[in-house]
Design goal:
Strand content of chain B: 15-25%
Structural class of chain B: alpha/beta
Order of helices and strands of chain A: EEEHEEEHEHHHHHEHEHEEHHHEE
Shape of chain A: globular
Helix content of chain A: 25-40%
Number of helices of chain A: 12
Strand content of chain A: 15-25%
Largest sheet of chain B: 8 strands, mixed
Oligomer: heterodimer
Number of helices of chain B: 11
Helix content of chain B: 25-40%
C-alpha cells in the first residue's frame, strides 16, 4: 500500500462573536491508498470540520494553526494542501483528487438542474473529457452504482429519485472523477436500514474496484464495524483513540470509546442496560483544561487529568490512545 | 387485562388530487390494522420510512383521519370510540393522550421560555386555576424529567439536544396523560444521549404507569425498551409479537430482512447479512397481492395474487405471510 495523505498537527479555530473557538485541536493521522478509516464521535466532536479542512472547505472565519501540515500524495508528487491559496489552486484537490459525499443527498443536488447535467458539469471542470464523453461516463457510473435505467435517470431531477437512489447518484458523481480520497460524511444516516445495507455494500465494492482511500464519518459504530479498516475516535476536536477496527471495537482503550460502546443498544443482549455517558459534551467555548474528556470520564485518575493533556501512547502495535491510563509513568500521578 | 387502546381494522386513506373521470384516487396510508396495547405496555412500532407507522400513531391520537374501522380507548375512567368523538370528549381525550416529537430542535418555540413551553398545554386545556398552580405542576414535571428547575426561565436555544428532548417530554406529560405516542423520539440524538433519554422514558413509564406507543426505525433500540413489537410494511401490519419472540424467532421475511440489515458490531461478521433488494414501493401504486412480494426472496405466484392476512404463529404472535410455516421449518 502507498501513503495517500498525511495530516500533521491539524488545528483549526473559528473567530465568532462569542470569541475564538477551537474546533480541531492538534489532530494527526495518515491514510494509505485503499484504506477505509472510520471517524467516530458525537455531534460537536469536530469530525466533519476535520474532514472538510483536508480540502480547506471552511468558512472565512477559520484560522489554521501555524504547525498544521497536510500532504496529499498524488501521482505527480506530493501536494502541500496548506500552501494552496486561491480557489483556482484548490481545483486539483476539491472534486479532483478528493471527493465529498454528504449526509443529506436532497440538499447536495441542485434541485433545478438535472442529475446528469450536474455530473457532466463537474467532469468538464476536472477532466479533459468532451461533453459527449462526460455524458457516457456519467451514465456508465450511474449503472455501476446499481441505478436501473441509467439513461432515464440521467435526465431526471433530484426530487424524482428516492433517498437511496439519490445517495447512489451522489456516490456515482463523486467517483466519476476518479478521486484518490473519498470523504463520506454520514452517507447512510438518513437512510433506512435495508437501504443503508445496500449502500454499505456498494461502497465496499467501490474500494476494492477503485482502490481509493475513504474517510467514513459516522456516529454509528455498527456501520464502522462493517466498513472500516481503521477507526479514529474524536472528542471535542481532539483525536482520543486510533487503531484497527478490531482493536478499537473489541479492546477500546480510551474511556470515551468504552462509554460510546456501552451506550449502544445491541441485539446480542437485549436485557443489558443502556449506560449513557454522564453529562453533555461541553460547549467549545468552555473547553476543559487537561484531557478534554475529564469532565465526563468515569475513570479519572486524579488531578493530573484536568491539568495535563495526555499524549498518544501505544496500547498495542498500531493501536494508540491519548489517555493517562496508558502513560508509561503512570505511577507518578 | 383489558387493552388501554385498541385499533380495530383501522384504515387511514388520504385523497390524492385526482383525475376528472371516475372516483378520486386515494392513498391507503394505513390499511386494516388491528393492534391492542395493554395498559403499562411499551409497544414498539417499526418499519421503513413510508410504512405508515407515523400515520398509525397519529390516528390513535385522532390527529389523522380515521377512514375505516375505529380506535377504542379505555383507561378505566372513560371509554371513547375515537371515530365518533364529540368536541367535548375530544378535548378531554387530548389531555389523556399525547405525542412526543422526533426533532427537539423543531418542536420547541424559540420565543418561549421553557416554563411557558411546558405550561402551554395546561393553559390551553384550562387544567389549572391559578398561575401558582400552573407553576407548581410545571416544576413537578420538570423535576421528574430531570430538568434543572433553575433553568425554567431560559429559552430553548440554551439547551443541548438531550435537554431539549427532556423539555419536550415534560411538555407531553404535564397534562397527566395515560397514553403517549413517541414518534422517533430518540432518532436525532447521539448514542449516549439516546441511552439517557430511553432510560428516562422507562423510568417515567414505571413511575407514572404510562402506556407508550414507541415508533422507531431502529430495531436495536426497540429491542431494548419495548415489550411488544408490531412491524409495518406499506401500511399493513406484517408481524406482531412480544419483543423476545420477535427477535429470537421472527417469522415474516420482512422482519428477518430488517433484523439482518442492522450493522453488526462484530468486524468479522461482514457480508453475512441477507440483503434486501430494491426499495419500498410507492403507496400510491402498491403491488397486487402481498405488498412485500416485489422484494421478498421467497415470493411465489400465489403471493402476487392474494394478500395474506394476519394469522396466529404462536402465543400473541401473529404473522401475515403465505409461506411462514414452510419458511420456519427451513431454518
Amino acid at each position: 500500500m502507498s501513503r495517500l495523505i498525511d495530516v500533521e498537527n491539524l488545528t483549526l479555530q473559528f473567530d465568532t462573536d462569542e470569541g475564538r473557538i477551537t474546533a480541531v485541536d492538534n489532530v494527526s493521522f495518515s491514510l494509505e491508498a485503499g484504506e477505509v478509516m472510520g471517524l467516530v464521535g458525537e455531534s460537536g466532536s469536530g469530525k466533519s470540520v476535520t474532514a472538510k479542512s483536508l480540502m480547506k472547505l471552511n468558512p472565512r472565519n477559520a484560522i489554521y494553526g501555524p504547525d498544521t501540515n497536510i500532504t496529499l500524495y498524488l501521482d505527480d508528487g506530493p501536494v502541500d494542501v496548506m500552501s494552496l491559496q486561491t480557489d483556482h489552486d484548490m481545483k486539483i484537490v476539491r472534486g479532483g483528487s478528493i471527493s465529498l459525499i454528504f449526509q443529506e443527498p436532497m440538499a447536495s443536488f441542485a434541485p433545478a438542474i438535472s442529475i446528469g447535467d450536474q455530473m457532466v458539469e463537474q467532469l468538464l471542470i476536472h477532466t479533459s473529457f468532451s461533453p459527449t464523453q462526460a455524458k457516457e461516463l456519467s451514465i456508465e457510473m450511474l449503472d455501476r452504482v446499481g441505478i436501473s435505467d441509467p439513461k432515464t435517470r440521467f435526465g431526471q431531477y433530484a426530487f424524482e429519485l428516492s433517498g437511496g437512489m439519490r445517495q447512489r447518484a451522489m456516490i456515482a458523481m463523486a467517483l466519476s472523477t476518479k478521486p484518490r480520497l473519498l470523504i463520506a460524511d454520514e452517507p447512510t444516516t438518513a437512510l433506512d436500514v435495508t437501504i443503508q445495507a445496500q449502500v454499505i455494500d456498494l461502497m465496499k465494492d467501490i474500494v476494492s474496484e477503485f482502490g481509493m482511500g475513504i474517510i467514513f464519518i459516522t456516529h454509528d459504530l455498527g456501520v464502522i464495524a462493517q466498513t472500516a479498516d481503521t477507526v479514529a475516535v474524536m472528542y471535542l476536536g481532539r483525536l482520543v483513540e486510533h487503531g484497527s477496527v478490531r482493536d478499537v471495537i473489541r479492546r477500546p482503550a480510551h474511556p470515551y470509546t468504552r462509554g460510546l460502546l456501552a451506550a449502544l443498544p445491541t441485539l446480542d443482549d437485549i436485557d443489558a442496560p443502556l449506560t449513557p455517558i454522564p453529562g453533555d459534551i461541553p460547549s467549545p467555548l468552555e473547553r476543559p483544561s487537561g484531557c478534554v474528556y475529564n469532565t465526563r470520564c468515569q475513570e479519572v485518575l486524579g488531578p493530573r487529568c484536568a491539568r495535563e493533556v495526555p499524549a498518544f501512547s501505544n496500547v498495542s502495535a498500531d493501536h494508540t490512545a491519548a489517555c493517562h491510563l496508558h502513560d508509561s509513568e503512570r505511577d507518578s500521578l | 387485562m383489558k387493552p388501554l387502546i385498541t385499533a380495530q381494522g383501522l384504515s387511514v386513506h388520504y385523497a390524492l388530487r385526482g383525475g376528472l373521470i371516475g372516483p378520486a384516487p386515494f392513498v391507503r396510508a394505513v390499511e386494516n390494522v388491528t393492534i391492542e396495547v395493554a395498559p403499562g405496555s411499551f409497544f414498539g412500532l417499526v418499519g421503513e420510512s413510508g410504512s405508515g407507522k407515523t400515520t398509525l400513531g397519529r390516528a390513535m391520537l385522532r390527529a389523522a383521519p380515521i377512514s375505516k374501522g375505529d380506535v377504542l380507548f379505555d383507561d378505566g375512567e372513560v371509554e371513547y370510540s375515537l371515530k365518533n368523538l364529540g368536541k367535548k370528549d375530544l378535548k378531554d381525550y387530548r389531555k389523556r393522550a399525547q405525542l412526543i416529537f422526533q426533532d427537539p430542535y423543531a418542536a420547541l418555540s424559540p420565543r418561549m421560555t421553557v416554563r411557558d413551553i411546558i405550561a402551554e398545554p395546561l393553559e390551553v386545556m384550562g387544567l389549572t386555576k391559578s398561575r401558582a398552580e400552573t407553576d407548581d405542576r410545571v416544576r413537578k414535571i420538570a423535576a421528574k424529567c430531570r430538568l434543572n428547575v433553575e433553568h425554567l426561565r431560559r429559552f430553548p436555544h440554551a439547551f443541548s439536544g438531550g435537554q431539549r428532548q427532556r423539555i419536550s417530554i415534560a411538555r407531553a406529560l404535564v397534562s397527566g396523560p395515560k397514553f403517549i405516542v413517541a414518534d422517533e423520539s430518540v432518532a436525532a440524538l447521539d448514542v449516549s444521549i439516546q441511552a439517557d433519554v430511553l432510560n428516562l422514558l422507562k423510568a417515567i413509564q414505571e413511575e407514572m404507569g404510562l402506556t407508550f406507543l414507541f415508533i422507531s426505525h431502529d430495531l436495536s433500540v426497540v429491542a431494548h425498551v419495548c415489550d411488544h413489537v408490531a412491524v409495518m410494511y406499506l401500511g399493513r401490519l406484517v408481524e406482531t409479537a412480544p419483543t423476545r419472540t420477535l427477535f429470537s424467532a421472527p417469522r415474516h421475511p420482512y422482519t428477518k430482512a430488517l433484523l439482518s440489515a442492522i450493522p453488526s458490531l462484530d468486524p468479522d461478521d461482514r457480508g453475512k447479512a441477507q440483503k434486501l433488494e430494491g426499495e419500498i414501493p410507492s403507496p400510491t401504486n402498491p403491488p397486487p397481492g402481498c405488498k412485500f412480494q416485489t422484494r421478498c426472496p421467497h415470493a411465489i405466484d400465489h403471493c402476487r395474487v392474494e394478500e395474506p392476512i394476519l394469522e396466529a404463529a404462536g402465543t400473541e404472535h401473529n404473522v401475515a405471510c403465505h409461506k411462514w410455516q414452510e419458511l420456519s421449518h427451513r431454518n
